[in-house]
Amino acid sequence: MEKFELTVAAEQVGRRLDQALADNPAPPLSRSRAKGLIDSGNITVNEEAVAPSYKLKANDRIKITLPPPVGSTVNAEKIPLEIVYEDDQIIVVNKPKGMVTHPAPGHYSGTLVNALLAHCDHLAATGAPLRPGIVHRLDKDTSGLIVVAKTDPAYYSLIKQFKDRTVEKTYFALAQGIIKNDQGVIEASIGRHPVNRKKMTVVRTTNHPSPSLGTSESRSTKGRAALTEYRVLKRFKKHTLVEVKIKTGRTHQIRVHLSHLGYPLVGDPTYGGQKNTLGVTGQMLHAGQLKFVHPLTGEKLEFTAALPVEFRAERNW
Description:
Mean pLDDT: 86
Helix content: 10-25%
CATH superfamily of the domain at 172-285: Pseudouridine synthase
Distance between the termini: 46 Å
CATH architecture of the domain at 172-285: 2-Layer Sandwich
Largest sheet: 9 strands, mixed
Low-confidence stretches: 206-221
CATH class of the domain at 172-285: Alpha Beta
Number of helices: 6
Order of helices and strands: EHHEEEEHEHEEEEEEHEEH
Strand content: 25-35%
């Protein structure tokens, strides 16, 4: 069971509770889901039950309790893993394309967590029940490096490192089209799509962003600040291989930013925008490098994972 506490900021005053929660990235809720939780008493304002249409006031305190879904028990499953590094505190895995990071609606088996529970004697108990030890995630069809905490101290250390943005993550992506600049920076806030709530999109920023629901970070009117750096590695006839570093960890950040730039990832079913001429399934995005500090020893660790075979094919690129 997950619990969240949010404080209403000035720009949210006067909005409907269910609408404001649907626009808030954490926790991600659809408006209908928010309404259901409000009606069931799992969302309160100032410790009191309210209606979904409740109009928010400055400094209102919102408490959200997310009950575990039916059938939420995570079972250990003997699934092959490519382990890059492991000790008694952490484990680093090269997650294959097509594997979901942790159980979620529609994916209660075959996930990385299911596999880790069969391999490890223990994972950090801190965090959501369906995500033991998980401190960051990769999309289902994004392959590459992911670190998981095996103990609670390791969990808290890694969470802090991600929050402080000291973890360095480098991705490799095959984009549609020929990117002209050799390198560049994409700085554009990301929020939920106003129509398709399962998608993210670049949103308008304000001149003086202020903290919004549940975060002390600067945000745009409807999104959160996001910064992506890219460098062209190789240009082909119709595609470009790029190295990408993200300074923030927004949902679908690389996919959204490159699509916004006009160069969506090859195979991306959500943000592709063009016909997939290479016949690949899922976006061609690989987390190839990961750097962070060991939670216990303080040693600086650096890991790499070679590009998957489909990145090396170079067929009709």
